[in-house]
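FW: tagging you since you asked about this chain on Friday. Here's the raw sequence from the shared folder, copied in full. Didn't touch anything.
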Amino acid sequence: MTQARLASCIPLPLEHKLLVTVIEKAKDWALMHGVGMRDRKHFTKDAIQIAPFVLLPSPFPRTEFNKAIELQPILNELMHKVAHDDEFLEHTLQNTLQVDEFTAKLYDIWVKVREEGITQPISLGMLRSDIMLESRCPHTENQCAKHTPYCSWKQVEINSIASGFGHLGPVSREIQSYILRQMGHGDLIKNMPENRALSGLCSGIIEAYDLFGVPSAVVLFVVEEVSYNICDQRFHEFEISETRPDIMIHRKTLNEIYEETTLNDKKQLILEGKPVAVVYYRSGYEPAQYPSSREWDARLRVERSSAIKCPSIHYQLAGTKKVQQALAAPGVLEKFVAGSATERVRDIFTGLYSLDFDESGERAVEMALEDAERFVLKPQREGGGNNLYGADVRDALLRMRRARERAAYVLMERILPPTVAGYVVRPGAAVPPPITDLVSELGIFGVIIGTRDKIYCNRQAGHMLRTKLAEANEGGVAAGLGALDSPYLVDM
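HL: got it, structure written out here
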């Protein structure tokens, strides 16, 4: 089947001289407005380079965008309920814990703090539901002409520890608005939805801080040892400082938390003599980023404390791929979502299959071996770059068909989004870039604050769009695989 296409917001290709001129202007605009990151190859704290960005906003159906916005509070509440259902998490993760060391260590911390007694019942969830348009119709052998060039949208995943793009999402709209004005198409900006992701996410941290209720307390951002995505991270701090100058923010690695914090007799996490009100993890922390017992000890100390965590340990467990696969199983959603919302949520799930050593797991393996191109093999990881596609799916399943590690993965049906022609501007690349076929992934942010029994706030909080080459499998911007973008809403 030929992959479906969407039309660019203006006719392409652009005239050569115009293209060169507008890209040079846009690159300067990017550097002056925080559309940047540090260079991985030539790292220095004293310089940034532009982050890859798509020159023109990518088309996205208006009805589907609005549907995703409206659904986000329901997904927030779903994740909140899952995170507070101890029995469900225990049952769902039991096989994964035997083969995935990182998830097992998170689980051990969760068990330990539950046995000791939860010190802080309030959790702050800053979630991002990542979705893609699906061009294939499940009801026909061929593409459904009624829905050309797309049929629906499906959820790629929901992230409980990856609220990145709070700054880069909104600023993508601003740079593309600037580009459209420079090209004489400022009238098109009205079709680019407002994006207040930065203020929306930061307001969640501020609300959690106020719920903590200690005026002298501080907010702690947990960061990697080396931060490349510095613009996106720092603008959260700048936004909070501008909105609430009374809130002091500290950035610390887990090693620094181990060395510089203590727990007092009230189980307050003390940093530089002040109690910590909110701990905000700025990374998914891959296993390689927890190389020492000191960092795990620091994570346990934070979880034992009275600080409001974003995410708390049970929220992070709820965000694992295994839990998301379990939610897609028949009859499971009804446990957490009531009424007509159940079908609305189920409709966005693509096929997700367990690879446990049981009858359904064996069927999933056979299905993937028969047609590997239909599937993606996903481990329990955050941050992109870990999934397997096509022939690699087949090779991996043949290698670990009888191995315990198989249970650490889930199998997902691959989404086939429509393509659009466009230009991707990258640091150090030739100008002008070639026109290429691109596909996009939309992320909708949500904020939810609550305890097991009470929800204080629950809202949608902005969006982001990442775009990549149509033939590329992964699309992480920080990893250099994708590009910043924003939606251009079209009526179809």
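FW: The chain is about 35% helix and 25% strand.
HL: agreed, and The first strand starts at residue 36 and ends at 37.
FW: great, closing this out.
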